[in-house]
Design a protein that fits this description.
The structure is a single chain. With about 240 residues, the protein is α/β, with parallel strands linked by helices. Helices cover about 45% and strands about 20% of the residues. The chain has 10 helices and 8 strands. The protein has a 4-stranded parallel sheet with strand order 2-1-3-4, with helices on both faces. The protein has a 4-stranded parallel sheet with strand order 6-5-7-8, with helices on both faces. The protein is globular. The two termini are about 30 Å apart.
Length: about 240
């Protein structure tokens, strides 16, 4: 029997390969996954501002398929609107479509709190016109943000080609430059940063939180599943 532990609907921002496969592999057997796509292509603030209306349409499709949970992935569309908007959005969508909803923004905030993080250093692949807004989102959630730095000078469509070794180097440099913290936050699922998590946690003596691991952790929690995975940092190994 497929999906005997539950079926998750994923509303994904882009058609980019990688994060869907990672999510599925990190989930335990018995969980079904049905993806739907918003179609973000350029990664501009204007495009993100328009994305939530499309995301709601995809959520409605998944609710019609009677999934057990919908996870809206992609953080910029919600972060750009502020911390309070997140909870209001979830409340509205759950009441309208009668399906439990998680947002990637909420999963990350919850993961940071579960790990006891207070001061975070953030690294993103976006331009600096959006990064201060991302920082403000976490400050509104009660965290100290030592930095929220963009570090990538590549087209949005090529983020998946960045090597984990490069991400490790950028993250370590940014973390040390600002005096560190108890958490390194890697924003976005467009780059494959998962292989860098364990080396960064070990070398910096800080926890690392990113989109995919936070989504997997929160999805398991919501489905009342506990299937720890080694090799991807404390959040996945300890499942706090």
């Amino acid at each position: 029997m497929y999906a005997w532990r539950g079926t998750v609907g994923l509303v994904k921002p882009t058609y980019r390969a990688g994060s869907l496969e990672r999510f599925i592999r990190l989930m335990p057997d018995g969980v079904g996954v049905i993806p739907r796509y918003v179609g973000v292509r350029s990664g501009t603030e204007k495009e993100f501002q328009e994305a939530l209306a499309i995301a709601e349409q995809r959520l409605a499709e998944l609710a019609g398929l009677k999934v057990d949970l919908v996870v809206i992935q992609g953080v910029p569309p919600i972060m750009l609107r502020g911390y309070r908007f997140d909870a209001e959005l979830v409340q509205t969508l759950e009441a309208k479509y009668r399906v439990p909803v998680l947002t990637a923004t909420a999963t990350q905030v919850d993961a940071l709190r579960a790990l006891g993080a207070k001061r975070l250093v953030g690294l993103t692949y976006f331009k600096d016109d959006m990064n201060p807004k991302f920082a403000r989102f976490f400050e509104e959630a009660g965290f100290e943000v030592a930095a929220m730095k963009g570090c990538v000078d590549r087209p949005f469509s090529e983020l998946g080609k960045i090597a984990a070794e490069e991400i490790y180097g950028w993250a370590k440099k940014a973390f040390v430059e600002v005096g560190g913290g108890d958490c390194l936050y890697l924003l976005g699922a467009g780059w494959d940063c998962l292989p860098a998590i364990e080396p960064l946690e070990r070398d910096l003596k800080a926890v690392v939180v990113t989109n995919v691991t936070a989504d997997v952790w929160a999805t398991q929690k919501r489905l009342h599943i506990r299937a720890p995975v080694k090799g991807y940092g404390r959040l996945m190994e300890e499942m706090p």
